[in-house]
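Retro notes
What went well: the complex prediction finally ran end to end.
Inputs used:
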Amino acid sequence: MAVYTDINEVELKDFLQAYDAGTLLSFKGIAEGVENSNFLLHTDRFPLILTLYEKRVDENDLPFYLGLMQHLAERGISCPLPLPRSDGALYGELCGRPAALISFLEGMWLRKSEAKHCRELGAALARMHIAGHDFDIRRENALSLKGWVDLWDKSAARADEVQPGLENEITDELALLEDRWPVDLPEGVIHADLFPDNVFFIGDELSGLIDFYFACNDFLAYDLAICLNAWCFEKDGAFNVTKARALIEGYQSVRPLNAAEIEALPLLARGSALRFFLTRLYDWLTTPEGALVVKKDPLEYLRYLRFHRSVKSAGEYGLS
Amino acid sequence: MAVYTDINEVELKDFLQAYDAGTLLSFKGIAEGVENSNFLLHTDRFPLILTLYEKRVDENDLPFYLGLMQHLAERGISCPLPLPRSDGALYGELCGRPAALISFLEGMWLRKSEAKHCRELGAALARMHIAGHDFDIRRENALSLKGWVDLWDKSAARADEVQPGLENEITDELALLEDRWPVDLPEGVIHADLFPDNVFFIGDELSGLIDFYFACNDFLAYDLAICLNAWCFEKDGAFNVTKARALIEGYQSVRPLNAAEIEALPLLARGSALRFFLTRLYDWLTTPEGALVVKKDPLEYLRYLRFHRSVKSAGEYGLS
């Protein structure tokens, strides 16, 4: 929850000159997103989200993120649609920061999801993968194998502060994943961060996907593995195989997995668990006490990682 | 800026059962207000503000605050209108806190106001005073003379930490105000906190007054004196007499001040400056370092107080 940059109506009206967005009636900072500053604008025509990109987002990646949202929305995926400026650009500058106007998407994220929601999610994810197929900008996944090694190099020496034995366990895990990581699975644009707070529902119906600021090119099945971690563990740490089955069935109802993807799923889930473990561990070790950000427990993802290590085949995720 | 209480869609839908507000489509925490938690809701019928009252607001005062907004809105004052529940109550309970649904008011507060805005403000303030005349709930001003003495008792011993000589200066000031404070000026419901961030404009037109959570019964001219302090000093500390004249002329175009009010204006302005000095001083001395709240400088209001002390008559505020 954050508004990092405050804006005033004079600067905002000036910024809006470049858009055909109507007359500004109100704007309010909203307490969502931890990477950027977000405002809800009302004009006499429609509500809009104004996003100011703070330093954790690389401006060079904005054509990918914003272009992808436009590409997906044009293909019927319900996601935020950037409003182009009169000169065609998808973002401008406000208060010295890159800033974009984006359509307001109705819906709420589920604090308590059920299997039926996971089924909806799986189908929406597969539709997104298919719609992203012909998007022509590429962005490497900075948080795949190479990124994990970099993060681990910065954290390994202090890992045993968090739990004794961690340094050896994760070093071994990383070596195994480097050795066995797949090389020939179907690739494409993935969301890479499809946690519950990035999926909106109205009632039980999925109304949209948001926050494409980790999207990149990678194995499509890796995106599904991220959702297995983000959606299918209960608060007590138990893996809910009913949700996992619904998620995968929903996905396959739109895009069937091939044999190699199915075989790789447990390994992809280990990698995905390691990825979130490593970023959380790094933040845990480097975020000062008393900072405004809520630190997330890395050990949650260590438990998920250990679970997937025990999985012998994708059948244990409910695949029939 | 704050959202103190997080809510989820299950609790919120349950809360909305008691209202005829349509189907919930989205809700977002907004970064406004320092006393309460505020959310912007969209239903299929209209946008709404949901306010959860945190502990600094006394639940016993809610019938006054919410009833006043309803009373004023019914008399044509543009202010947030509480949506009554089906049982007629103006607030319910959500997450263990009193909570109200209030109409969304379009408009933006001015970061840079001009004399013409002060004129609009003066007229709106006078209209509010007249509309509040027959409101039948009373609330004493907890931050008048008696409240100032209480605050000063808690801060006096440490005041010289902020500026040497303050203890003597404020003790003398308080004694003088206790001695000379008016007793027979026209009274009524005052807003008591009409700073720029509580006054919305669309373009140059005043679109509404918000945040009635300091409203109370007191001298009407005291409300005008609060606005003199809140609107008519420039960032460098200079008193802008053009703004003051416009503010008072705007007020008198709707409700002319009587001779006693005009004579009392410099003293009321001293009292008002002291009131904000004392609350800021208390917060300054008691808010822990590193707290989320931005501490406001009490010395700003000491300078205002000293200015008003030098004023011989209301003519110096631009009154003709």
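What we learned: The two ends of chain B are 40 Å apart (CA to CA).
What to try next: split runs per interface for comparison.
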